[in-house]
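Thread amino acids onto this structure.
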């Protein structure tokens, strides 16, 4: 993996009952070592919680939302007062009838941030109700977050680490080690991941099996595994460029942390240590490093599966051999 201009090799821990995932991911990782590596960038990090308030009328709900969005200090100050480890990012609002929805976003450092942003949203809710007594409490969570549910809003506004992993593979390496060509793989990616997903009505998602590796990596590193719902809303791109394969994976909602609930378990602690995610770094850099590593590992498995699917009998033959122990 090449991250922040430095190249390093690491072993990603995976916890899964789907035994073909290990050799499949290993095949993709081998390709990365035969090339210039997987280049990873993490563009943004934030966690969100939405709150619900009731106004006496739709007109008052709309007027209050406009006032809050133009004067965000009340929310910013309430959010920042709840923690030393996170800070207010942004707030977005929508009105439905007399109901006012506010989506509060904050950066949460090395924590995934679910509890941190919920505590911050609770403080913001109390501050808003105090300043605007005509509003009534609706809910501390209002589904516009959106937590562990398919929705477009997370990809548009951000929730988790916005992670992009990319690799360039020469045609000869594709033929020798993936048993396919850049043209065949790029064509399959277009037809399967993009056209097939569009026909299925997928929500901001065009990939082969991102959820498989996310779940395995989440369980091995103490993450909230239910976040694979939004985490697997990812985009796989494959293009033939000058006989090479340019292959990338974009994960807009990769929610991970290196501190917090679950990280104290001995096997999780050991895995995070081995990944170098327990170092003394500025707040947030360990979690960003983990997001980059999971992004790179997920690309490896995505690449290997798509290559297998370009050949008529490869996928099922491999599953029979590894899972059913059939020759």
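Threaded sequence (327 positions):
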């Amino acid at each position: 993996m090449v991250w922040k201009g430095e190249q390093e090799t690491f072993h990603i821990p995976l916890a899964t009952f789907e035994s073909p995932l290990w050799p499949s991911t290993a095949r993709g990782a081998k390709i990365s070592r035969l090339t210039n590596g997987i280049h990873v960038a993490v563009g943004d990090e934030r966690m969100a919680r939405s709150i619900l308030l009731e106004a006496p009328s739709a007109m008052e709900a709309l007027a209050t939302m406009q006032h809050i969005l133009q004067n965000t200090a009340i929310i910013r100050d309430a959010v920042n007062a709840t923690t030393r480890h996170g800070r207010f990012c942004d707030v977005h609002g929508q009105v439905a009838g007399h109901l006012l929805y506010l989506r509060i976003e904050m950066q949460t450092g090395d924590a995934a941030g679910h509890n941190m942003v919920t505590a911050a949203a609770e403080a913001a809710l109390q501050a808003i109700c105090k300043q605007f007594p005509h509003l009534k409490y609706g809910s501390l969570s209002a589904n516009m977050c959106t937590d562990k549910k398919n929705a477009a809003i997370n990809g548009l506004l951000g929730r988790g680490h916005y992670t992009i992993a990319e690799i360039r593979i020469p045609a000869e390496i594709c033929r020798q080690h993936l048993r396919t060509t850049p043209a065949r793989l790029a064509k399959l990616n277009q037809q399967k991941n993009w056209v097939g997903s569009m026909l299925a009505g997928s929500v901001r998602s065009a990939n082969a099996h991102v959820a498989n590796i996310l779940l395995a990596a989440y369980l091995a590193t103490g993450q909230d595994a239910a976040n694979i719902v939004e985490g697997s809303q990812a985009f796989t791109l494959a293009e033939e460029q000058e006989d090479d394969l340019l292959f990338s994976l974009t994960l807009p909602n990769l929610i991970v942390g290196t501190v917090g609930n679950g990280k104290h378990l001995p096997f999780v602690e050991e895995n995070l240590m081995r990944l170098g995610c327990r170092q003394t770094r500025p707040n947030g850099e360990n979690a960003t490093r983990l997001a980059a590593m999971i992004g790179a590992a997920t690309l490896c498995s995505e690449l290997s599966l798509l290559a297998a699917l370009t050949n008529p009998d490869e996928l099922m033959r491999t599953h029979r051999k590894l899972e059913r122990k059939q020759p």
